[in-house]
């Protein structure tokens, strides 16, 4: 696909997205809003707000929720005594007290009366409790609210939608009950004579009349939940039957400011613009909502427990200082009451959300989102898209990435500053899409080509190269030569000693599990040291170092890997014995030399492998370990290629090898120089001294030295035993004068 076609398609998508953003774009914008709130939360709650919590401590003190209503009245009276300026109730009382839930004290009182007047009527308890609850508890709460004179009650609107439902006689009574609490003054511009709220309430559920009528103010408790279930905005105004009603938070601020008569709704340009509270303007959206800039997660606002309020006298200075002159929001903070909501900062108590809304209204710092932002999004998106289309083809790939990243970072930073400093929320997703799509349209062709190359490399080499090597090849494909070539490399062969016997003792599934565990551990080590796994042949591993990447120290890496593998086997042996009753021992052969490496096979199946005499010698050395009792057998070619003094070796023998004119010296790789102990070094020196004497034809002296070496070693040393056997034979059958101490490896 050509660039111009990609760009044309992108331009169409951009235009459609900008004019009519799909749902996922809106959700993305909301999530970005969450991040802005999270990282700019002021975390300094307004000191004029206090939450009076129905917490677990209060539930333990006064019983499970809901409490008797006279208890709420007692709390209100106590708050009045502590000097609260406004008491807001984040709860409703829309039904009379439940007569079926008669308190224990009522039963006790009824029992006393029954005993005195000998009443046996089974309905006695019910009637007694009903009368007491109905008359005393609702009336007691209403009396407390009226006496305080500063209580804002809460209620709910029903079925919020764009069309007003038909009213009933009951709803008419409800409206008459609520009308005293409406906002009475509405200010309209010339173009807003008939403007209304975009959403209207079809019904309401106020408190029972005895409670609803006595409040100093009243506000609805409805919240607004976005499509992902998170509360980001808060409705401040609802329209109901042509009247406008404040939320509990707004009603609390109006009461606190003494602005009941001076509060005005302001309509301009055919829609609601905001609310004027005693000369201070709170901007809203056309739905009557504000965006909440949360001060922090749950419990950011100070909370005083009802249990503490009720247990202390009003003279208590500590509690008085917390409450006096403040807006006291009574609400549930205990998780068992289940008044928990989701906000951008996590699970939050409903009363905490009310406190944040009160703070926004008090400080006029709610987040603003302008109505003309959609037009701004379109202009900005088109500008950025055209800029990317023009600029990126003129840049190198890395420069293009940097410019794209800086553009997005700059956009996010600008939006963050506007949010944090000016409380303005600018959309980020559509402009970012313009940047990203512009970048994609320029780089797609190159990207597709690069991905095709990467998939080929990963498919061809993923089975036998380490992720690190794969990454190097992917980043620089020129390092890879897939055709056959001759290189000096290091070949590596391993085989598990006595594996046939082990396999006969285990069940098939046990054998496979054990073998997989072993091969995984060994492969991990090979990859760690930049080796390439050629293939697995049963329990055998064939690997090499020096291809496909050219590695100068391939011999050293191979030897270090071999030592690490032996130590890994030693560490794993206990586990293998416990789980499968088999402790594995592995023999290894290492040889360095010229060999052919490349992709070999048929058209349907190819393997990246090696071949040549040097490879064959490594395979023979692996098998020769059994003869010498060694674990890692190394040719003189690898010995010479290894860094001087990096490893501890002992020279074992010199042998004739098929395909080689001269004898080949064999060395046992014992350990790295830095980890070899002094005792290992001493025993190695004793052995090599004995070998020198042996080659000098001093057979009796050599036998004595090998015997001493074998005894002092403390463990079975097959190499010492081999030389002792050779010497016994030579002492009984003296060799010819041209004897060169070279043995045939094949024999």
From TrEMBL:
Biological process annotations from GO: cAMP biosynthetic process; intracellular signal transduction
SUPFAM superfamilies: Nucleotide cyclase (SSF55073)
EC number: 4.6.1.1
UniProt-recorded Gene Ontology molecular function terms: adenylate cyclase activity
Compartment list: Cell envelope
Domain Guanylate cyclase as annotated: residue spans: 490-622
Transmembrane domains' residue ranges: 6-28, 375-392, 398-417, 424-442
Keyword Kinase: no
Keywords recorded for this protein, A-Z: Cell membrane, Lyase, Membrane, Transmembrane, Transmembrane helix
Enzyme class: lyase
GO CC field: cell envelope
InterPro entries, alphabetized: A/G_cyclase, Adenylyl/Guanylyl_Cyclase_3/4, CHASE2, Nucleotide_cyclase
Gene3D superfamilies in the record: Nucleotide cyclase
Name of the protein in its database record: Adenylate cyclase
Species this chain originates from: hydrothermal vent metagenome
Lineage per the UniProt record: unclassified sequences, metagenomes, ecological metagenomes
């Amino acid at each position: 696909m050509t660039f111009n076609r990609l760009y044309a398609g992108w331009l169409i998508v951009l235009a459609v997205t900008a004019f009519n953003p799909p749902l996922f774009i809106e959700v993305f914008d909301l999530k970005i809003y969450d991040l802005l709130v999270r990282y700019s939360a002021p975390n300094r709650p307004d000191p004029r707000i206090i939450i009076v919590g129905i917490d677990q401590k209060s539930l333990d003190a006064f019983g499970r929720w809901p409490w008797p209503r006279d208890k709420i009245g007692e709390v209100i009276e106590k708050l009045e005594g502590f000097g609260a300026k406004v008491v807001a109730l984040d709860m409703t009382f829309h039904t009379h007290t439940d007569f079926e839930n008669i308190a224990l004290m009522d039963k006790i009182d009824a029992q006393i009366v029954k005993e005195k007047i000998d009443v046996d009527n089974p309905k006695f308890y019910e009637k007694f409790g009903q009368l007491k609850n109905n008359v005393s508890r609702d009336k007691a709460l209403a009396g407390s609210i009226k006496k305080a004179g500063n209580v804002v009650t809460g209620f709910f609107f029903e079925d919020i939608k764009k069309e007003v439902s038909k009213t009933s006689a009951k709803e008419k009574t409800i409206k008459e009950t609520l009308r005293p609490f409406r906002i009475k003054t509405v200010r309209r511009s010339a173009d807003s004579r008939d403007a209304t709220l975009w959403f209207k309430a079809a019904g309401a559920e106020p408190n029972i009349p005895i409670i609803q009528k006595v409040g100093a103010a009243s506000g609805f408790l409805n919240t607004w939940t976005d499509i992902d279930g998170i509360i980001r905005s808060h409705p401040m105004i609802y329209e109901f039957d042509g009247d406008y009603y404040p939320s509990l938070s707004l009603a609390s601020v109006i009461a606190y400011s003494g602005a009941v008569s001076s509060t005005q709704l302001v309509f301009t340009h055919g829609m609601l613009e905001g609310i004027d509270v005693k000369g201070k303007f709170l901007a809203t959206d056309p739905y009557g909502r504000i965006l909440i800039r949360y001060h922090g997660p749950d419990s950011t606002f100070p909370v005083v427990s009802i249990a503490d309020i009720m247990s202390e006298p009003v003279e208590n200075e500590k509690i008085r200082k917390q409450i006096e002159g403040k807006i006291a929001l009574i609400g549930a903070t205990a998780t068992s009451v289940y008044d928990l909501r989701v906000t951008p900062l996590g699970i939050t108590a409903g009363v905490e959300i009310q406190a944040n809304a009160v703070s926004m209204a008090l400080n006029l710092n709610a987040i603003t989102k302008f109505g003309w932002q959609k037009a701004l999004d379109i202009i900005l998106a088109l500008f950025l898209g055209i800029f990317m289309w023009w600029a990126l083809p003129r840049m190198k790939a890395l420069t293009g990435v940097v410019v794209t990243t800086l553009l997005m970072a700059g956009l996010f930073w600008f939006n963050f500053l506007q949010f944090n400093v000016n409380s303005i929320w600018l959309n980020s997703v559509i402009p970012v899409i313009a940047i990203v799509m512009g970048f994609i349209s320029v780089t797609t062709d190159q990207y597709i080509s690069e991905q095709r190359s990467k998939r080929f490399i990963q498919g061809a080499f993923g089975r036998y190269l380490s992720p690190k090597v794969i990454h190097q090849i992917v980043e620089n494909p020129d390092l890879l030569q897939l055709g056959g070539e001759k290189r000096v490399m290091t070949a590596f062969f391993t085989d598990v000693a006595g594996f046939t016997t082990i396999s006969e003792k285990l069940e098939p599934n046990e054998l496979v599990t054990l073998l997989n565990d072993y091969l995984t551990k060994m492969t991990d080590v090979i990859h760690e040291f930049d080796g390439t796994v050629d293939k697995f042949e049963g329990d055998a591993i064939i690997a090499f170092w020096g291809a496909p990447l050219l590695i100068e120290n391939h011999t050293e890496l191979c030897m270090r890997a071999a030592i690490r593998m032996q130590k890994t086997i030693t560490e794993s042996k206990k586990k293998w014995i416990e789980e499968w009753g088999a402790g594995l021992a592995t023999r290894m052969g290492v040889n360095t030399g010229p060999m052919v490496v490349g992709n070999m096979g048929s058209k349907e199946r190819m393997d990246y492998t090696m071949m040549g005499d040097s490879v064959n010698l490594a395979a023979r050395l692996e098998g020769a370990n059994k003869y010498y009792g060694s674990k890692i057998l190394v040719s003189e070619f690898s010995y010479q290629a290894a860094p001087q003094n990096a490893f501890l070796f002992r020279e074992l023998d010199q042998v004739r090898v098929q395909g080689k004119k001269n004898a080949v010296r064999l060395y046992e790789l014992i350990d790295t120089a830095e980890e070899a102990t002094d005792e290992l070094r001493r025993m190695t020196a004793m052995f090599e001294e004995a070998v020198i004497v042996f080659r000098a034809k001093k057979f009796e002296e050599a036998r004595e030295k090998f015997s001493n070496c074998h005894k002092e070693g403390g463990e079975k040393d097959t190499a010492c035993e081999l030389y002792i056997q050779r010497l016994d034979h030579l002492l009984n059958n003296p060799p010819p004068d041209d004897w060169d101490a070279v043995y045939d490896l094949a024999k």
